[in-house]
Amino acid sequence: GAPDGGSLAGGGEAFGDRSLNQGLSVLVGLGLCVTMLGLGCAVELGQLGQQLRRPVGLLLALLGQFVAMPLLAFLLALIFALDEVAAVAVLLCGCCPGGNLSNLMSVLVDGDMNLSIIMTASSTLLALFLMPLCLWIYSRHWINTAVVQLLPLGAVSLTLGSTLLPIGLGVLIRYRHPRAADLMVKISLWSLLVTLVILFILTGTMLGPDLLAHIPASVYAIAVLMPLAGYALGYGLATVFKMPPHCRRTVSLETGCQNVQLCTAILKLTFPPELIGGMYMFPLLYALFQSAEAGLFVLVYKMYGRDAYKQDTLGEEEDTDISYKKLKEEEVADSSYGTVTTEEHNSIQMELTQTTL
């Protein structure tokens, strides 16, 4: 698809409208800050310490976001014979950390919320080092092209580094003002939706109504297949780790949901517009399809999976009531997924001391 790549790159001329272009850059930057602040507000230091002692969530985030997804993006770019501009946009999206959409979806499928938040936060921190590395490794195939020779890995690292401040501020807000943190998490989820809608409208205004028609069918196909394959890979990965069903659903959503705000910000703020052109739209298309497919996942679960989940949780409660001592080893295993909170652990220990007395 070289001709396709040419027509897409040509879309960069439309970014000549300086005021709209600057407005778009500000919106992308602000949207990313609010998202990262919301992510920080969702992290509790106690949970973080627990996960660092038994880092299953950290390991799954590493394997899902920086092994499975970049490789998937690379293979799809090769299979569909994308031109270098489209390939870089797809690779960039594949190398991004997890997005906070997965946290919301995990709640809707009765997933493990602690695991979801820890995976999103740890993949975002790991991205500081691993995202530029993955981009460098997988872009070698297109090394002789201008877009890869000018790949701004330093600027990508700088953009990633700038996200640490709002994340750190969010963690501090959660520690000092938990109620304000809860509100901020809700605001960040709504801002994600609003920002994506405004980005679609502004980009459509700048690049013209023919933009979507100029994007090759292969790029649409990847935007549909990539999140779907990501969800399947995540579920498979959690199954290999012998995780319980609610954790499998969580890891599945975490792996397929990418941080599209970060991807959009990197494409918009670090690449010359005449170089990246219409491929700036790819993360927005990915966001559209990852949301639709996650919504379908939730719908299928609500219709067919919820009864099975209730039976599982009932069974677990009955087992715990019969004899906690017998299941002590299993409880330790469960806490590695972040499912047993400190309060629950303490209350169980109190019950144990009472029974022994």
TrEMBL record:
Protein location: Cell membrane
Keyword Phosphoprotein: no
Molecular-function GO terms, alphabetical: bile acid:sodium symporter activity
One GO CC term on file: plasma membrane
InterPro entries, per the entry: BilAc:Na_symport/Acr3, Bilac:Na_transpt, Na+/solute_symporter_sf
Gene3D superfamilies (UniProt xref): 1.20.1530.20
Keyword annotations of the record: Cell membrane, Glycoprotein, Ion transport, Membrane, Sodium, Sodium transport, Symport, Transmembrane, Transmembrane helix, Transport
Transmembrane segments: 24-46, 58-82, 115-138, 150-175, 187-207, 219-238, 280-301
Protein's membrane topology: Multi-pass membrane protein
Family, per entry: Belongs to the bile acid:sodium symporter (BASS) (TC 2.A.28) family.
Function: Transporter for bile acids.
Listed name of the protein: Sodium/bile acid cotransporter 4
Lineage of the species this protein comes from: Eukaryota, Metazoa, Chordata, Craniata, Vertebrata
